[in-house]
Amino acid sequence: xxxxxxxKLKDNYSMxxxxxxxxxxxxxxxxxxxxxxxxxxxxxPYSGLSCPQCSEPCTSEGRCGDxxxxxxxxxxxxxxxxxxxxxxxxxHRCKDKPDLRLAKRFAQLMFDAAPIFTVPPDFLTYIPxxxxxxxxxGFNLSEELCQQLGTQLNIPIxxxxxxxxxxxxxxxxxxxxxxxxxxxxxxxxxxxxxQHILIIDxxxxxxxxxxxxxxxxKSQGASTVGAWCLARTPKPI
Length: 237
Ligand SMILES: [Zn+2]
Ligand SMILES: [Zn+2]
What we know:
Layout: H1 3-12, H2 14-18, E1 21-22, E2 29-30, H3 38-42, H4 65-69, E3 76-82, H5 87-96, H6 100-112, E4 123-126, H7 131-137, H8 141-153, E5 162-164, H9 175-180, E6 185-187, E7 196-204, H10 208-219, E8 224-232
Parallel strand pairs: 3-8, 4-7, 7-8
Antiparallel strand pairs: 1-2, 5-6
């Protein structure tokens, strides 16, 4: 069949072609290419009222008590979703086996629940991984999300402002271990004087990695550093 015949058929049967996808969560037909239907997207665990600096869910406006006592090194943060079903399952799936389609879905969900910028950032950046890990995994989800969002928002990506010297396994670490642990992140001594930089990452748990990254960016001269993550885990006990 040549292309023009295929196009005519496609036009005649557009209803069929528009509903070629199956929602992964409810198995209903959907035209949404990100793999879940509009109704399931609507029901996702979006973040509600939260502390504007650390994104911890809270019941009143303004910075939480922890941020007032000991503010983190990033100036603001935004998490598009909370780390509840189906987010943990999706993230484990994507980390265990790199899946670009899932990464695109995450970026789209983040874009749909984006922060409101009073002053847009000069650059987006991401939490780097080690070369070895990138080679064995073939994928850095943080970088992939950053790339997708940079394109959608038309904001340039800042590369090589941070370096990761060694990998630290975070998944099984306790909250206390995560906070104390050296993440292996290092500065690259790039001149970032006066820049507003927004770090993109997949999950904020204790915020320890983002804190170290923000401190390193500020040590290179950045004036404002924010963090934007796909999901926020509930406060560790
Ligand atoms: Zn659905
Ligand atoms: Zn806070």
